[in-house]
From TrEMBL:
Name by which UniProt lists this protein: Uncharacterized protein
A Pfam family assignment: Vps62
Organism the protein comes from: Chenopodium quinoa
Basic and acidic residues bias (residue ranges): 7-21
InterPro entries noted in UniProt: Vps62
Taxonomic superkingdom: Eukaryota
Disordered: annotated span: 1-21
Amino acid sequence: MGNCITRDSDPPKDDADANADAKEREILAIDTAFSLPSPLPEWPSGGGFATGTIDFGGLVVAEVTNFTKVWATYNGGPDDGGATFFEPIGLPEGFYLLGYYAQPNNRPLYGRVLVGKDTSNPANPTLKWPVDYALVWSSKSQDVKEDTPGYIWAPIPKDGYQAVGLVVTSTPEKPPLEKVRCVRSDFTTLCEPDDWVWGKTGGVDSDEFNIFESRPVRKGKQASAVSAGTFLAKSGGGTTVETPLLVCLKYALKNNTYMPNLQQLEALIKTYAPKVYIHPKEEYLPSSVDWFFQNGALLYKKGDESNPVPIDPSGSNLPKVAPMMENIG
């Protein structure tokens, strides 16, 4: 996986001081795109693993890691280094934007966002245009170091649909309606602020305007929610409307064919499993679970700690944990 970044999509404002500041601006960490030290290997074929897309049950998603810079700030956020806002580009054919990406300037560009493709019944599509945009925040009259003003917009969805991300521009004109798509509500679930991206103060409870990464409220291996990689905005100084409720994506239908098969698992283990080198004189060696159970592992019961019992080699007398209910909200 790697990232690609192109130049700003809009020219700087016609201001001598701003242009001078831009020319003198030091190179930021985000000006360098993150890349792995070596290319990903070719995985064995079969099933849906590593195909680049996942079908949520009528909504197919793909990951995009190429961006064009739309707007940047040079103060505020982590290390007071500012943040940069990007439009994803290079979408696969038939896929649409769900929202823009934002990242602090103090790290190399490493982002990814999900884009969507509607494969449902046309009578009840999973993706629709917004009906309008609401201006959430503008940097005009704000204490922000920037090359151009920035404007953050919230898509207003049709009934039965939800906005998954926000849109950023460097001009006060509303974005085109076809710029992004909103997602049918049964493919969405609540999300919450995650890591701080930008603002004057980073607390979730701050009265200032802040940008955060997003993550699902319901998490865990049994959860069906997925972050789209877009960002959240929290109301504060400079906001023009109450910041909208954004959502994460979720599976409407789980499909295990996207999990690796045995051959692919073996390839993953061979590529990424750690290698442990043991000193020739080491007395304590790794063991299998079976060996551990057969060679002294004991099971203790609360309130009766003085009477432990051996663990059955099959593990049949270990406490049973009830399976978690699948999160579908």
